[in-house]
Structures are given as structure tokens and as C-alpha cells.
Amino acid sequence: MRVFYIFFFCLLSSLSFAQQGNQNIFPHLDIRSIITFDVSVTGRGLDYYFRNTNQIERGLRGNNIFRATVKSNQNWIMSVHSDSETLLDANTLEPSRMPCSIIGIRKENSEDFLQLSTIPQNIASGGRGNDKKSGNSFSMDLEITPGEDAEAGEFCMNIVFTITPD
Questions:
Q1: Which of 11, 25, 129, 126 is nearest to 77 (CA)?
Q2: Which neighbouring-strand residues pair with 161?
Q3: How deeply is 61 buried, as exposed, middle or buried, from its count of CB atoms within 10 A (0-12, 13-18, 19+)?
Q4: What is the pTM of this model?
Q5: What is the pLDDT of residues 97-123, one digit of tens each?
Q6: What number is the average pLDDT over the span 68-90?
Q7: Which domains does the chain have, with CATH numbers?
Q8: I need a surface site. Which of 25, 100, 102, 165 has the fewest CB within 10 A?
Q9: 61 Cβ neighbours under 8 A, 6+ residues apart
């Protein structure tokens, strides 16, 4: 009888050890750099009418003209520039004598305006997260100061916002 119990115990022990095992699975993740952004016109829009010499010399300012939102999985920098050195005549789309530097843009709560040029200038930066993260959603102001040498006419231009990884 003792032999039977010893044999039965050894059989059970070997069966339980034979059923144990591990298997490792290694998933492959490929997470790319993702940055999306939107700059939209808000407030009073982009139409500015200069009616007297005081406005031409001192300029007109619009607060919160642009609203920017950024979603990113990495830190980022936003820059702004003009795609041409001068404003275009709105009727002919030919270059005028009005330099793009008469237009300034600043991020909310900043003191100084960045005068536009064809060279990109950093206007904002932020970190990973969606548009709810502090710094990833903000307004921008616009100032246009033609100066006393301004030519008469209607003008337009293309303002380019670019976002890159930091």
C-alpha cells in the first residue's frame, strides 16, 4: 500500500511540473512624431481701413485676431513669416512698394510685435499634449502700421505659420 501511495504521489508531482511553462510575446510599436495645428481668424477679421493720417502713422491694432491650437506628442516651435517681401496690389496681385514689415504679430500677453519678413521668426513654443494643455492654445494680435510714406490702394499678402519639432 505504501508503494502505491509513493508511486501515485510521484506521478502527480511529475504531471503538475509538466504543465507549467512561460511564453513571452513582444509587441512592436511604431509611434511617429505627430504635430497638428490650426490657426484660425477670430475677432473682427482681417479687413483694416485707414481713414486719416493719424491711423496711417500710428497704425491699427486688432487684439485676438488669430486663435492657434496645437496637438503634439513632442515639444514644438511655431514660426511666422511672409511669403513675399512686399504686399500685393489687391486688384492686380502684382507686388507693391509696401513692405511686409508694416505688419506685426504677437502672441497674447507679449509686449513686442514681430515685424513680418520673409525669414521665419519664432512666435510661440509648447510641449506634448492636446489643445487643453497650457500653452497649446493661444491668441495672437495683429498690428498694421503703414507709416507716412504709404502708397494709396488696397493690398493683400500671405502670412505663413509653420510648426516644427523642438
A1: 126
A2: 80
A3: middle
A4: 0.80
A5: 999 999 999 999 899 999 999 999 999
A6: 96
A7: 35-165 (2.60.40)
A8: 25
A9: 141, 142, 143, 144
